[in-house]
Write a structure and sequence with these properties.
single chain; alpha/beta; Urease, subunit C, domain 1; Diaminopimelate Epimerase, Chain A, domain 1; 9-stranded mixed beta sheet; 6-stranded mixed beta sheet; 33% helix; globular
């Protein structure tokens, strides 16, 4: 019955069926003994001709065979590491197609202000007050993860649901405070940080950003999108006083924290969305030294058009470093707009709960087009962040125009990242232009409770339109946008198949007709992610000859009740045949 159900689910996902046209794994040419064998499991291969198996064998960094217990146990030799899975589920290594590597590592070292840790603004302020007591005079206090829509009650007094900031000033009059919004598109800062950033009563809104003020014109501390830049510049100035050794140590700590977080959650490939050239240089150094312990597919961002034109081609890398873990072949994510949670996503019509605004364009479309021209000339992918309906429409227009001007350029695999709110007529354009929708399914369930309040029922029906995109043969690559939401794929998987909140799964589903099947959701986190980085021949399915990036789960996420998905844990994470994480025993591959 399980096999029949699994085959039926596979047939539903026409995108996956078409993409996985390769031959099935055969064990006939397997070596006499394997380095690693996993047996007595439920292996979900994501391969069309053998969707399920019991066991697999690994030689070196590649899969040697996939088959039955009897077939694979025959490959156990005196030096084989053989693991009895006792019925656990094996899937390809998860590919997070949109997350922020160093930023995740940095956030893991800061104050966690997510809803389960700080459910009210009062709790946020108290956490800051405790950090101030431990800090040195003048030291920056950093936190992340707050979201006003996730607080159990609004702050009082407030400005459109946002705190006035006076309580924050009271607990930290001398230490600058910077608290990142969960979306990453706003920060809340105290008066000291505003002072250091040079933001005063008469500072105008920058193009592509907003300084939120109260009825008297006072900046409350909320800065949206490009209005954040002066504060980050002040923070960078403070950090510039550190020695090169201190800065390198800090970066290595961020890499280590992010890597451990990824491996503990089964993420074997990480698409790092947007780093400047100097960070790519740092990645090259650690990759060459063997200090990059997962696959990092880094996208370039933060550089001017002139800098990209002059230097982009010099940064093209594929499988670089001691383990071949670093690839650089994309520009992104370029911000065309902001976020729904901060009222800065760009729509055709105003917000219902903020009628004075339709959001705004962050990076001018002409600049995005110029970057796209450079990308196509140098053989790079292009990724543009678009959340609102108009942002998505305008980006598709730019892509269509640039592609039309370069008809000889094929297999571009350009992306729109997030692609959250679409007008119905834009949905078929993704497939027509071969544009990948790089989406983060967890956002739908986190945002769901306030989407309708923001934009109304009609627009909300085509928000996070996974079913509509898949039905029209588009490719969806999944991710978390970490540290915006946790890197753990399981809440994302849960949301993909239920459209229910991870905070409270009992809440009504958000437009459930747009949910994915179990196999579509798994494809979005494995094969589709590999396709989105030109790696479907090496990753994304468990087949003989492919790289042995493997995850063992303690539950069967294909068949278990939906309510149990959130209780699923990673038992093993294997990257290139090396056991990098073992639940209860830590990270043997990092020793």
């Amino acid at each position: 019955m399980a096999e029949r159900r699994l085959r039926k689910i596979l047939l539903i996902n026409s995108v996956l069926v078409a993409a996985l046209a390769g031959s099935a794994v055969a064990g006939s040419a397997a070596p006499p003994a394997a380095d690693l064998v996993l047996y007595d499991g439920h292996v979900v291969t994501m391969a069309r001709y053998r969707p399920e198996a019991q066991a697999l064998a690994v030689n070196g960094e590649r899969i040697a065979a996939v088959g039955s217990d009897a077939q694979i146990k025959a490959l156990i030799g005196p030096h084989t590491t053989a693991i009895d899975l006792h019925g656990d589920t094996v899937v390809p290594g998860f590919i997070d197609s949109h997350a922020h590597f160093l930023e995740t590592g940095e956030d893991l070292s800061e104050i966690d202000l997510s809803a389960d840790r700080a459910p009210t603004w009062h709790d946020v302020v108290q956490k800051v007050a405790a950090a101030v007591k431990r800090a040195k005079p003048g030291q920056w206090i950093l936190g992340y993860g707050w979201h006003q829509e996730h607080w159990t009650n609004p702050p009082h007094p407030n400005v459109n649901g946002l705190p006035t900031g006076r309580a924050l000033d009271a607990v930290s009059p001398d230490n600058p405070v910077l608290l990142r919004h969960a979306s990453g598109h706003a920060i809340f800062v105290n008066a000291k940080a505003l002072e250091l950033a040079g933001i005063g009563p008469h500072t105008p809104n920058p193009k592509g950003g907003q300084i939120v003020r109260d009825a008297h014109g006072r900046a409350i501390g909320m800065l949206r999108d490009d209005a954040m830049n002066p504060v980050y510049a002040a923070l960078a100035k403070a950090r510039a006083a550190q020695s090169p050794a201190q800065r390198t140590k800090r970066l290595l700590e961020q890499v280590d924290l992010a890597t451990r977080d990824a491996l503990a959650h089964g993420v074997t490939s990480w698409q790092d969305m947007g780093q400047p050239f100097k960070v790519i240089d740092f990645y090259k150094q650690i990759a060459a030294q063997g200090k990059l312990h997962l696959r990092l597919y880094a996208w370039i961002n933060g550089e001017s058009v002139a800098a990209l034109k002059a230097h982009l081609k010099d940064y093209f890398l594929v499988h670089y470093g001691k383990y071949g873990h670093l690839t650089v072949r994309g520009i992104g994510e370029i911000l065309s707009d902001g976020a729904l949670g901060t009222h800065s996503a760009w729509f055709f019509r105003p917000y219902l709960d903020l009628p004075s605004s339709s959001g705004f364009n962050v990076t001018p479309m002409k600049q995005i087009q110029a970057m796209a021209e450079i990308a196509i000339a140098d053989g790079f992918q292009m990724s543009v962040h678009a959340i609102g309906t108009r942002a998505n429409h305008e980006v598709l227009n730019v892509y269509q125009q640039v592609m039309a001007e370069h008809p000889d350029a094929t297999d571009l695999r350009w992306r729109i990242d997030h692609a959250q709110h679409l007008i119905p007529s834009d949905i078929p354009r993704f497939h027509a232009l071969h544009v990948i929708a790089s989406m983060q399914t967890g956002h739908a369930c986190d945002d769901g409770p306030y989407v309708t309040k923001r934009i109304g029922e009609v627009r909300a029906a085509y928000s996070y339109a996974w079913h509509s995109l898949i039905a029209d043969r588009s490719i969806i690559a999944n991710g978390t946008d970490a540290p915006v939401i946790p890197l753990d794929p399981m809440p994302n998987f849960f949301c993909a198949v239920t459209r229910r909140q991870r905070f409270d799964p009992r809440q009504p589903a958000f437009f459930p007709f747009q949910r994915m099947t179990r196999m579509q959701a798994l494809a979005s986190y494995t094969y589709n992610g590999a396709y989105s980085m030109f790696e479907e021949g090496e990753l994304g399915s468990l087949e003989r000859g492919k790289l042995a990036d493997i995850v063992v789960l303690d539950r069967d996420i294909i068949t278990e009740p939906a309510g149990d998905i959130l209780n699923t844990h990673v038992v093993y994470t294997i990257v290139g045949g090396r056991i990098m994480y073992h639940r209860g025993q830590g990270f043997p591959g990092l020793q």
